[in-house]
Amino acid sequence: MSSNLYSIGLSGLQSSNARINTTGQNTSNVDTEGYSRQRTDTTSSPVGGVVLRDTSRLVDNFVSSQVRSDTSTFSYYDTYHSMISTSDSLLAEDSISLNTYINNSFDALQTVNNDPTSSSLRQLAHSSLNNLVQQYHTLSGVVSDQEGLVDAQLASSLGDLNTITAKISNLNEQILRQEGISISPANELRDQQELLAKDLSKYLDIKAQFNDKGLMTIQLANGQPLVMDQFPTELKVSSNPLHPKKIDLVVSFGDYEVGLKTQGLGGSVGGLIDYRSEFSVYADRTLGQHAIALADAMNTQNRKGLDADGQFGKDLFSLGDINVYSTADNLNKAKDISVRVSAGQSAKITKDTYELNRTDDNLFSIKKVNAEGKSTDKAITFDPSLLQKDNNGYFKIDELGLDIRLDGIDKIDKDDIFQFTPTEGAAAALGLASRNGEAIALSAPIGVSTGSDNLSDARISLTSVTNTDPETSAFSSDGSLYPSAPHKIYFTSPSSYVVQNSSGVELAKVENVIEFSNLLEKAGLSNEAGFDVSVSSMPKRGDEFSVGTDNIGQSDNFNGLALADLQNQSLIDGKATLVKSFSGFISYVGSKTAEIEGHADSSEIVMNESIARRDRLSAVSLDEEAVNLLKYQQSYSASAQVVTAARTTFETLLGIMR
After folding, report:
1. Residue 209: helix, strand or coil by DSSP?
2. Which residues cross the membrane (predicted)?
3. Which helix (H) or strand (E) is 235 found in, with range?
4. What per-residue confidence (pLDDT) applies to 11?
5. For the segment 490-544, what is each residue's pLDDT rounded down to a tens digit?
6. Are 418 and 356 in contact (CB under 8 A)?
7. Cα(452)–Cα(460) distance, rounded to whole angstroms?
8. Cβ contacts of 419 within 8 Å, gap of 6 or more
9. Which of 19, 144, 389, 625 is most deeply packed, by most CB within 10 A?
10. Rounded to an integer, what distance in angstroms lies between the CA atom of residue 446 and that of residue 432?
């Protein structure tokens, strides 16, 4: 009996000692990040006493998984918000607001219209346009600087991420070795591994699981592996010839690489990539669409007037080249494809990417795809051999507002894919083509006069100038009207008139006129002429009105007023003015920032609650450990008394035997 009592007391001592050690371990690691409270389990022995079992970690894998998921979500929105809030504060700053520079430029045009002969006012208007161009560059620089910051942060994050996965893999090896030579679990190593997994979730949305050996494996939310037992993978940035500005990721397995879907990555890496692909691309293309619309509208209108030297106006702005991309094996073919915005057709240009490919021997197709790669419209199919080319080899795709030149058309094979985005980088490439204010075409290219012998008070006025191209209008290359063009309007009655050329030959006759605006349109001649005229009231029989290029005054501001009025025209996508479009863009940035900020705040609350749930189970409580320590100390003392009693009993028995 005494020997049994001795065994019971000894096992109690061992049990109490082990639990005191566990309590001491918990207490000493109260501030250790990632440490999970440990507990030494025991069971009653069938022969008496207590049997020590494992010292295990108090963890709930479901709660730990939730902590990682919520950490990833918060990190995603926090990173996204930090980037977009910077963009919001910069783009919305009044001192660099594009609308301020737009208003200043058009105000300067209005001012010079008051005195078109003033060189100083012309130069002031030219300086305002130059400032506007520089502001496009500034705003584009804000976007590109943020893109550079994303690239730098992403490179750093991937380096840290790959280091973490390597450490997790290394810990798997250590755990396998340590638990193979011991009956106790490698608690501290597993705590380190859990902490690394939590750190990893700050970068990506991951799933941590344990295989049949009890080793941690890491997968992305889409199922792609990052850690397989003792074999880590590596995440890398990969170049994409079709989308050079797009961030592509690959998972390297050492001997081969697999492309990674970048949607829904979560964590800070997902936040950086989504900011770049969603907001940064959108901002760059929005500014580019804005710049294209401004340049095209101003250039088109300036070509309809005469500059200070009496010459037809030329382009005020210049646009950069539109880059054409293709797959790596087709890069040489892409160099033979040129694309530009058709003159006067910028309203048709969208922020989409355009995909060109050859469908068969003769036909090509172009379709528009959005930033997500989804088609946004029906594909346009055309046969280049049937389209008329200009002197530079370009043919028009009217539906898209684009001119295309295919120099190496015979080299292009069926199903070759080429992509280009007209608005990409267009704001950064915008330039001022005119050298000074004298290039601003304020005057109309044609004058009108009312016959001195007319019997009525009706006065003729120039209504519009729509085309000055010598090949398609009444204007010759030297600026004069072709002799065959409309030169005179003669009223045969108050309600009928004829249009005559310079030789008096009748070009058209119109009768039953009750409204006297756009007389050439009524005669069916306005499109060919490229201009139109109106009279102020009902003429009388015999009234004559003339048009020609010798009736232009130096102070004429007809085209200058049209240039200034572009501020009020719906130039962006044919739906919004320049100012309204940029204001809408700033509103979008503000609302997007507020939306992301709301998600960041709410996800932080959810994450903190998950961490608190984990801590309630796994974190060390000094109060609880103090109670346990007192209890185990008392248990140790009691077990020692049992051993003492067993020894006393044994000695008493020996004494009796003597």
Report:
1. strand
2. none
3. strand 234-238
4. 86
5. 999 999 999 999 999 999 999 999 999 999 999 999 999 999 999 999 999 999 9
6. yes
7. 12
8. 242, 243, 324, 325, 326, 353, 354, 355, 356
9. 19
10. 27
Residues of the chain with pLDDT under 50: 1-2
How large is the angle between the packed helices 61-91 and 119-180, nearest 10 degrees?
Answer: 170
DSSP E strands: which ranges in 308-465?
A: 317-318, 324-326, 337-341, 353-358, 364-369, 380-382, 395-397, 402-406, 417-420, 431-432, 447-450, 460-465
Q: What is the pLDDT of residues 135-154, one digit of tens each?
A: 999 999 999 999 999 999 99
**SS3 label, residue 269:** helix
Alpha carbons 483 and 95: distance in angstroms, whole number: 53
317-318 and 431-432: which strand pairing? antiparallel
DSSP state of 276: I
Give the integer Cα–Cα distance in Å for 280 and 289.
14
Given a contact cutoff of 8 angstroms between Cβ atoms, the answer to whether 269 and 553 are in contact is no
Predicted confidence at residue 411, as pLDDT, reads 86
Considering only CA atoms, give the Rg of the chain: 41
Judge contact between 445 and 475, C-beta under 8 A.
Answer: yes
Full-model pTM: 0.88
Q: By the 8 A CB rule, do 224 and 238 touch?
A: no
**pLDDT tens for residues 206-217?**
999 988 888 899
Write the Ramachandran bin of 17: left for phi over 0, alpha for psi from -120 to 50, otherwise beta.
Answer: alpha
Per the prediction, the chain carries an average pLDDT of 90
The tokens describing 79, both together, are 């990173």
The greatest distance separating any two alpha carbons of the chain, rounded to the nearest whole angstrom, comes to 163
Whole-angstrom distance, CA of residue 491 vs CA of residue 458: 11
- Token pair, residue 399, equals 């539906």
Residue type, 470: P
DSSP letters, 114-132, are H-TT-HHHHHHHHHHHHHH
Write down the pLDDT at residue 554. 67
Distance separating alpha carbons of residues 631 and 637, to the nearest angstrom: 10
